[in-house]
Design brief:
Radius of gyration: 20 Å
Strand content: under 5%
Mean pLDDT: 81
Largest sheet: none
Distance between the termini: 27 Å
Number of strands: 0
Order of helices and strands: HHHHHHHHHHHH
Helix content: 55-70%
Structural class: mainly alpha
Amino acid sequence: HNYAYVVCHDGPPAPPAMSVPLSAVGESSSSAGDDKPLIPATVASPLPPSRLLTATYVAVYLMVGPALILVNKHLLKDVGFGFPMMVSGIGQASSALGSFLALRVLRLQPLTCAKHVTWPFYLRNMVVVGGATAASLCFGNAGYLFLTVSFVQILKAFTPVFVVVMLYATRVETPSPRVALSVGLISAATAIASAGEAHFNLTGVLIMCAAETCEATRLVLTQKLLTNLKFPAMEGLYYMAPICAGWMFGLAAVLEVPRALEKNAFSLVAPNAAAFATAVVLGFAVNIASFLVIQRTSSVMLKLLGTARNAGLVLFSAVFLGEEITPLQGFGYALSLAFFGLYNYYKIKGL
């Protein structure tokens, strides 16, 4: 999950800050790396340093997300530590610690919105948004207990449907006819892909529906409760990650820890310390990679890369993990990706 935002400041206008969208469907965008080659395009030359840096950030972004998904699935299924709240909390706790060290200890950037985030505002608004974010992440990880990695990624293409319905139901935004059509087509394509799933599990699908409902709720709450208050990416992480970690570990203390103690599950941590440590590092790296990509490109590019990353993980799961993808499922997923692209086009163009 990415947090984020445009700088909030007082005084004379400042240059636009590079920011990562708080919502999963980033709204603001900014571009960088406009350097033009100094020699004709027909002459071979090394990639300019700025573009090489951008390409590096993109490559890291495309790798760390799927890596975290695979590590979390390994912990949940293969290791047998089947407690999605605690597993999800690992990444949020590392993000909270990393952002605290960056901003409060190393002071890499100032807290530009500190005076706006009072304790009453924090508790009344941000804790609510953080709760929805935590629920989305926990349900999302729980899906891997019942479904294949590839099928979970396929179901993620259905997220815009929940978002549009939730925005309309809460009267935050009324979709245009073209957006509504693209959402309907995504629904049909996802239904085809689900019908073709060789290892369909109703419990897993319902859990993923809950995850996407929570994600849509998060987006609505963000628009209603945090209107006109946006943060630089690292500062957004500084405020939101502790909330998410608090929700996750707080609920885990009631719903998961007693079962974990009963099953002696914590004894699995030491023998699998490398996997748990990897989850800690990747949890923070995912958020930082998202920030770096949007800093060098735009939030629109982040969304497109996210879709491509999910599709790549589907192929990886089929080729290297041996997960079965039927022709009907592949056809349905290809359609859903095409209609998802159409949905993004209509949203971007305001059609």
